[in-house]
Amino acid sequence: SFTVAVRPDFSIPLTTGWNLISLPGSPAAGSTDINTVIPSTHDIDLVMTYNPTDARKWLTATRGTDGLFDTTEISDIGSSLAYFVRTTSFDALEVTIPGTRGGDASNLPEISLVEGWNLVPVRDVKGDKAAGDTITASTYLDTVSEKRVYGYDPLNDRFESVTNVAVGKGYWVWLSAAGTLVP
Predict the structure, then answer these.
(1) What is the DSSP secondary structure assignment for residue 8, as one 8-state letter?
(2) Element (H, E) at 34
(3) 3-class secondary structure, 6
(4) pLDDT (0 to 100) of residue 53
(5) N or C of the chain: less Cβ packing under 10 Å?
């Protein structure tokens, strides 16, 4: 006999106001829709991301009076970008992120980054890290030519240079040349 352990949802702690977050892996199949990842029962009311490959650069989604996000600019939440989210509560964001499975053929994730500023997520390739677990920034970013890495401190409302990156958070990263991040 054996017991199958269900993987708990990934829990991203939030504070009131702005938070810079990322998902450590892709949400469960078919559930990347912004209104699924951030349900109408959560107090997040605004989501922003910076995508330097999009002509608009800054993309936003605002929650309407119907409880749903406007999906004109951001329709899906994935693990290739980091997101600024604004909330009025301290409720954690719970996201179903399936673990890796033995026997599955899969490639390491690749995130294309541009020369200049990028809003970078922290991916968890093994799928065994909790929100807040840290990785040395130079190790995580060793496949690209990072020059500066800044994290956002929501309690003091400021950006700070960091030497470690944490799972569940996002970071501003300045690259001296375009490259592919392979976490």
Answers:
(1) P
(2) helix 34-37
(3) coil
(4) 86
(5) N
pLDDT tens, position by position, for the chain (183 residues)? 877 667 788 999 999 999 999 999 989 877 899 999 999 999 999 999 999 988 899 999 999 999 999 999 999 999 999 999 999 999 999 999 886 655 455 677 899 999 999 999 999 988 888 999 999 999 999 999 888 999 999 999 999 999 999 999 999 999 999 999 998
Count other C-beta atoms under 10 Å from residue 104's C-beta.
Answer: 6
Torsion of CA 128, 131, 135, 136, to 10 degrees: 180
**Which of 97, 44, 94 shows the shortest CA–CA distance to 69?**
44
**DSSP assignment of 117-163:** EEEEE---SSS-PPTT-EEEHHHHTTTS-EEEEEEEETTTTEEEE-S
Phi, psi for 57 (deg, rounded to 5): 65, -70
Burial of 175 (0-12, 13-18, 19+ CB in 10 A): buried
List all residues 6 or more positions away from 156 whose beta carbon is below 8 Å from its beta carbon: none
Pairing of strands 58-62, 111-113: unpaired
Q: Name the 3-class secondary structure at 95.
A: strand
Q: Which helix (H) or strand (E) holds 112?
A: strand 111-113
Residue 82's nearest CA partner among 52, 118, 37 is 118
